[in-house]
Structures
1.
Amino acid sequence: MSVLTNTFSKFSELRWIDRWNALQFAYYRLKAQLWYAGAFASLGKKTAIYKPLLLSNVHLASLGDRVLIRQGARIELIVTDPNALPRLTIGNDVNIEQNVHIVCGSSIEIHDNVTITGGCGIVDVEHPYEDVHDPRRIGARLRTRGNRVVIGEGSFIGFNAMILPNVVIGRHCVVGAHAVVTRDVPDYCVVAGNPARLIKRYSWQTKTWERSES
């Protein structure tokens, strides 16, 4: 049996709603290659982009293979200095679910096999408020130079979590729903809360996830 025949046979066995979902996915994957590939610095194979809310300066962003970006994504790269352009890199097999907001003014790296669930925010920009004599509203002030965010391979970011500037999240980490991450998270850790604190850490000595006393 040919690959095409086998694929059609599996498709025909699906329930109608699953067939509809599969057709939608195929459409948005094709649209990514035909429409969005020219908008990004690079866009990998089998990447699907559903209906984004906003894509701004994504010619400075690179997407890997098999990236999935769901509806309502707001991906903004902010240029404050033409001599220091921002850079957003998203690795292979990354899921970005609905209504995720990513703002990159300097450097954001999302490594392979990361899952970012709905409603999350990832930002490397700051709004300095210290100068009370500055006539600009705080929301119009931006500090970006030298900032960065890194999300390590295989990590999972829970619903509505916020990743703030100058945070490095290690490999195989879990960030709990509604967490606000303000500092680095080591590899193989679970964090939760506002501000996020360490809940569990995997021990290679005992081969178990151990609760933190902090």
2.
Amino acid sequence: MKKPLIYFLCTGNSCRSQMAEGWAKHLGGDAVEVYSAGIETHGLNPRAVKAMRDAGVDISTHTSDLIDQKILERADYVITLCGDAKDKCPVTPPHVKRIHWGLPDPAKATGTESDIEAKFNEVRDDIRRRVERFLHDIASQT
């Protein structure tokens, strides 16, 4: 049986899509094929790496990648994590199920270091809940 391919897209592939990819690989294991990419590449955000490490998931080896048309065409699910990616995502083949999770960008958080870290953790935990629910839903469809 073919593993479902999940492609997480965001603006810069630095925070939200990276965390989603990390959670999906961590929680989905060998049952899913997972990638993330951006409309642009902004590099991996060190605060996202720390937030995920604090939750027991290492994304430090991830790279910030541009959307790959070949992966997009093979994808079963394309999940956008910001309005920019939703609006600018290239056209997908008819078989691709597009899903949008509008999430705040933790990289835009302001305040003390503690405030910013809290925002990253809040978004990280929200993404984990969404990924868990999504993986459960697709597993129950097979």
3.
Amino acid sequence: MKEPVSVRLRRLAVEAFKFLTVGGLGYIVDVGLSNVLAYGLGPIPALLEGSPIKSKIISTVLAMIVVWIGNRLWTYGDRTTQSNMRGVVLFVAVNFAGMIISVIPLGVTWYLLDMRDQLTYNISTNIVGIGLATLFRFYAYRTWVFKDEAPDAEVVVPLEEPRTVPDDRG
């Protein structure tokens, strides 16, 4: 039997909350590290000054590790990936696509529009890019990576053969 819409919406809301909480932690790692690498922090010099895409790729990979652990153990801990290797491969593929989505706005502002200040960098990649990538990842995680294998409807199999009723018109 199909569960009521209110129950499905509540489950989706809990899932979205957990996903966004884990993603928020990953976001802090991603944004913080990408800024430190590209622009430095106080006395710490920029390690990759003039290389914003390299900075973003490194920070995204480290954030991806944090997010994998959080989503695997908490957000989607009750779901199966059928095998650890399958889950990791799908997760990496989805995050690679998400990384491309988040870097596209940065590439446009940095290389096409020649807007290279820290504010534009952060708006293009850490707000617009990550926002678009987050929508994609939420859909992809729940659809492919951490797929819910629970059936939507109960299947009823009869245990007896149906009886035939003799025709009275005989």
4.
Amino acid sequence: MLMPWIALSAGNWRRFSSFTSLPIVLAMFSFFLLPESARWLVSVGQIDKAMEILKNVIEVNKKYVSQEVLDLFEASCTQFYKEELNGRDFTVCSIFRGKRMARYMILMIVIWMAISLVYDGHVRAASVLDSDNIFVFFTIACATELPGNILVILTLDRCGRRWCSFFYTSLSGVFSLVGATLHKREYMRISALTGRFFANICYNIGLQWAAEILPTVVRAQGVAFIHTMGFVAMLMSPPVVYLSKKSLSSTLVVLGVLGIFGGLLSLFLPETLNHELPETLSDGAEFGKNQRIWHMPCCGPGSRKSHPRHNWHQGSSLRTLSKDEFRSSKMFRKTKYRQHEANPSRSSSEREIRTYKYGNGAKWPEDSS
């Protein structure tokens, strides 16, 4: 909201660039304040640093976790890294090895490109919707960010990512198309501002949603690739806004069609609210498999939290299951257990191993294949 007035007071694009770069310079100091991701540290074998961060979180939150649980978690993560992740290299290409994850990735790229183009197009359209009072109109348009962000906070964890994305993105497109049909410039501006309001919301939802759908082992690279494609889509926003030279309605029509298109595609992505998020490529291949298009977190089966399907890596939340990922001797022992499932008489050594892995009185794991 302050940016147009900073530009006006600067009177020079060099001074304006210098003033607006100061917050970015300050953001660089966040490196010394924000801790590293504990899960990422575990995935690269830096277990000690991960434990220091977790212990600090326990202390700050004034919680109690027994030393036995901490030791079990640390030992499990250490063993898991040595047997599963050591020497493994996950890239963006790993996402496209499975059909389901590849489909999700392509959908997220297309949706994010549409949302990015709609959002950036509305930002730039402020300069042509009211060229006589561009500073005031730009400030009003930017003021829609705050209530939009508040609405995201109030609805995202209640209605879920998918329906919120569909609802808000589609509304952005609808109001843009309505504005294109209006002849009075004042009504067109109001409709365009409403479309900008909903575009702010769906842009923030996309930032959250992509990070939850992608598994932990490829999350950072996958999200970065999706955002990069969003920046590529933003390259088309100046030509879209330039259509206003021919007709201002043309700009709003393009933004409206893209908004509705992105909203409809959102229905084909899985809901993440109340679900255990994927951590490995195997989890990603199964994630959302049992969800239907009417799956809603606020009512019905979607309102209940899902429970972890695999609990045999006690103490560690990281796990792998697929043939491409798994190289651990644990899997071969687990396969051997299944072979003995039909035999009621088990050797004492087998029972000792079962007790070590699953605890006393625990049932043998069911065959989920």
